[in-house]
Amino acid sequence: MVKAVVLGAAGGIGQPLSLLLKNNPLVTSLSLYDIVNTPGVAADLSHIATPAKVVGYLPPDDGLKKALAGAEVVVIPAGVPRKPGMTRDDLFKINAGIVRDLATGIATTAPKAFVLVISNPVNSTVPIVAEVFKKHGVFDPKRIFGVTTLDVVRASTFVSEIIGDLSLAPSVTVPVVGGHSGVTIVPLLSQSSHPLPSSISKEDHEALVKRIQFGGDEVVKAKDGAGSATLSMAYAGAEFAVKIIKALKGEKGIVAPTFVNLSADKSGGDALKKEIGKDLDYFSAPVELGPDGVVSIRSLGTLTDNEKELVKAAIPELETNIEKVRETQSKYLLVTLTLLYRAYPSLHRPSSR
Ligand SMILES: NC(=O)c1ccc[n+]([C@@H]2O[C@H](COP(=O)([O-])OP(=O)(O)OC[C@H]3O[C@@H](n4cnc5c(N)ncnc54)[C@H](O)[C@@H]3O)[C@@H](O)[C@H]2O)c1
């Protein structure tokens, strides 16, 4: 029995993702939560002849709490998508608040659930979830994941296109590490299960790396104001969620790149920090998954000089994205304290004792 929950289930990603989860026989219960439309989406999906019982919830009557009760896997695609000209970082201001509120719901109702964060910017929203869990005393770094699978999926597709045989796409695997925005996305093409043609020029190789890093922009531009990747993201999100569910059910040897807190596996995380030459708290690396979440954080393996440069270039932006959460928290605390002092000036006075 596996209960999966989608938070933001009525959105562009949420609906097809919920369809793919409903279509998976490993899921026996599927709760859909959003601020709009979930009763309709749930009614529609509930007619599909697969095992999962689907229920839709809205905010009134403790909807979030009811959706999350007993959840094992919670996927979060709630938030605002990117519009042309917006960076993932521009989304931070809006999505940070949405993710913080949903994380509070999970921390208080389903603190043991695996949390799969899709809402962008993933490099910052994952630390936000972690901070909320820490605040509630339920932080377990083994159970919080940033979903970077779309970068992996794009790498498989684009590499098979270059090889000239799209039928290979499902079996091409390329580790993509670092983070989940622009230059923080580092495809390790030298470790592709299917090597690139040896005739590939330096320019074409660079263009391929850029296409994987900025594949999201291709979709944002083509949708011309109607949002960002939804269908490919739903596919990628479901692929990662199913890996998590299989690991939860005891399947061994499942490894996938995902953005995690490096304390999830102390020795693996410390080794990775040495490898990248930076003491970052979060990084996307190949992670072995098990019934309790992260089993081990794997090494990046042997990198080419070019890949070493890409990792180096990723670090400053990653550091800023992660640090941003701390800064926002301090500001948030300052504003809260200021408002409190304004409302209750006596709090400000030193105690007479
Ligand atoms: N990780 C990735 O690779 C990746 C790829 C594409 C998009 N994204 C991100 O996924 C998010 C969703 O994108 P989309 O295209 O589905 O957007 P969308 O606007 O179509 O859907 C978002 C949904 O979230 C809901 N929502 C908003 N606030 C909520 C709240 N407080 N509680 C519950 N639900 C809430 C909205 O009602 C809407 O249904 C965006 O942040 C986007 O940037 C991530």
TrEMBL record:
Its EC number is 1.1.1.37. GO terms for cellular component: cytosol. Gene3D superfamilies: Lactate dehydrogenase/glycoside hydrolase, family 4, C-terminal (3.90.110.10), NAD(P)-binding Rossmann-like Domain (3.40.50.720). NAD(+) binds at residues 8-14, 34, 95, 118-120, 233. Keywords: NAD, Oxidoreductase, Tricarboxylic acid cycle. Residues 3-146 form the Lactate/malate dehydrogenase N-terminal domain. It holds the Pfam family Ldh_1_N. Substrate binds at residues 82, 88, 120, 154. The active site is at residue 180. The keyword Transferase does not apply. Residues 148-327 form the Lactate/malate dehydrogenase C-terminal domain. SUPFAM superfamilies: LDH C-terminal domain-like, NAD(P)-binding Rossmann-fold domains. NCBIfam families: MDH_euk_gproteo. PANTHER family: MALATE AND LACTATE DEHYDROGENASE (PTHR11540), MALATE DEHYDROGENASE, MITOCHONDRIAL (PTHR11540:SF16). Homodimer. Belongs to the LDH/MDH superfamily. MDH type 1 family. This is Malate dehydrogenase. It comes from Cerrena zonata. The lineage of its organism: Eukaryota, Fungi, Dikarya, Basidiomycota, Agaricomycotina.
